[in-house]
Amino acid sequence: MDNQQLLGLIGRMTLEEKIAQLVQLAAPFYEGVDDEGQITGPMQAMGITDSMIASSGSVLGYAGAAGAIAVQEAHMKKNPHGIPLLFMADIVHGFRTIFPVPLAIGCSWNAELAQKSAEIAAREAAVSGIHVTFAPMVDLVRDPRWGRVMESTGEDPYLNSLFARAFVRGFQGEDLKEETERVAACVKHFAAYGASEAGRDYNTVDLSERQMREYYLPAYKAALEEGCEMVMTSFNTIDGIPASANEKLMRSLLREEWGFDGVLISDWGAVKELIPHGAAEDEREAAYRAIRAGVDIEMMTACYVHELPELVRGGRVDEALVDEAVLRILRLKDKLGLFDNPNRGASPEREAEIVFSREHREAAYELAAQSTVLLKNDGVLPLKPDAKVALIGPFARSGDILGPWSWDGSTEDAVKLDAALAERLGPGNPAVAEGCGIEEGTEEQLREALNAAAAADVIVLALGEASEMSGEAGCRTDIRLPQVQLDLVARIAELGKPTAAVLFNGRPLDLHGMYDRVDAVVEAWFPGSEGGAAVADILIGAVNPSARLTMSFPHSVGQVPVYYNHFNTGRPQGAPDAQVRYVSQYLDAPNEPLLPFGFGLSYTTFEYDGLKLSSDKMTPDSPIAISVNVTNTGSRAGTETVQLYVRDIAGDVVRPVRELKGFVKLDLAPGESGTAVFTLNEEQLRYHHSDLSFKSDPGRFDVFVGRSSADTLNGSFTLI
Ligand code: GLC
Which domains does the chain have, with CATH numbers? Predict the structure, then answer.
């Protein structure tokens, strides 16, 4: 339908029917209607009536081809204007085939594989009846206390923007009407949810507009530039106004400055939460502020349904605001082809054929292998082929490796580490013992583990956080491994045997009590359906790890927030003329993180030399070429992620000590050398000035090229 046809349809709708399009209800609201069409279950509590359901615009969290087809067909019979339902769900890192959590995917530094993971997730979701996914989540994160860091790709705006684009391309493809096995994407959470104070979910965010534009907003903008169809509001306040009522953020910036004319949906209950926030006295005020801010769909509360009719009829809200919201929703339904085919890609046959297929699982394996970071290795890895191995820890046999937001994924059919290792090491190897649970243990478990360890040549510890210790509302003030696991590590360390630890977790941890007591550490994150296989192949050396951290690991939570692109301060520690005491430092910890952004080890080694700049001067018309030679000086083939950082020495506002501006991956055989070449131009040096103008300044820049943000060869140039 074209705009005129859609406007004609809107013109035939009553006010109540239009407002019902702005309502999103969870699946049970549709399952709760018994076969006489009578309302049962939670609907009554919200005062949702039959007619509202018949006219509602979208359903959250329904999946399954046959069921979705049935719900849609029943809905189409009841909807007075033949307007189909939108089916939306959180397909964040997989539908049934679960990929590593996005923080792990970020560590792959592989946008192509990230795009492929989103494409596969979209296909499995679309054939199962879903039209829209609430992803990508692109919130920049600097605080590992926050449970949702697992859902982001980390602390860098450049990398987050790269992945945001890749995920949107994978989910949406080129044409949602033609490609019915893709889904519309919904970038979230707008905006700056990752800056929640104290790393506590739903908490206050208070940032300068400049800081937001420089660090927190670029990835959302990148997603929208890639054509992302929807935006979701965040739970937090921005400068004292909750995002769902924030006209400056939603009208002025998102819609007017950025030109976004797609659908804006609130997060779950975020419109009604304007009341506890203290931004509205009651549902009427909440509805008033949200519709004025341009929130098109109210997720899971009924302020619009209850209050908009009176607000419009009483003249406080112009009906045009409702009409524009309805138009955006109907336009999205048309883009998805739902008016031509309300069932779109839903197909029980295709569902049976492609969901959790071998091809999809192989892609999940590959991404897990490229997302797993080798954090330490004193030579115990890869495991020797004939070594007797004891696999010990709460994750030795655990299927809880899918992580939060693993939708239709099943922990039962996740490939577990014990089975994967047994398949590779042969009969009776490894010996397996939990040793303890995630947060509790018994003497019996410990004894069994110590016996297994005593009989082994090498010990692999499988440790970490339960998935519910991460994700939404999974915030922790103590980000160490649970004490019972640290006690297990201590007892195993007393044996003095070669020991490697594998971590399954959703955040950078404080590794005190473990890191110094083992000989190797492998960060697997929540690696998804094929996680056990990918980790096993890294442990035995079938895969040479290549992942690099995209979020810093602090020495301790006391350092948080600690991130690589920080400012220098007026009294930087370690400056040539720095005093001993009166500098920016701690008395009881270093300033640097334990493991920096960009860090990751390999089973081979790489040497860098010959950093060259094509010129020591850059102008807006003459970019400079930067190159460095890298040699694989080890005995195995490996992939090196060569990273390019710059530092603007002096600016209108102070500038970070490092900013990632590019990276090149080199696959090198033993003894082979390669050259990483970058082109750096003036546009990449632009930043938001104190007056919010976005431009570069002439002056000196330092250049850093290396294997992490803290290990580089250095050069400099002048922008004139
Ligand atoms: C949750 C999350 C959001 C998700 C939504 C729907 O509260 O904050 O990321 O998309 O509700 O499940």
Answer: 366-540 (3.40.50.1700), 604-719 (2.60.40.10)
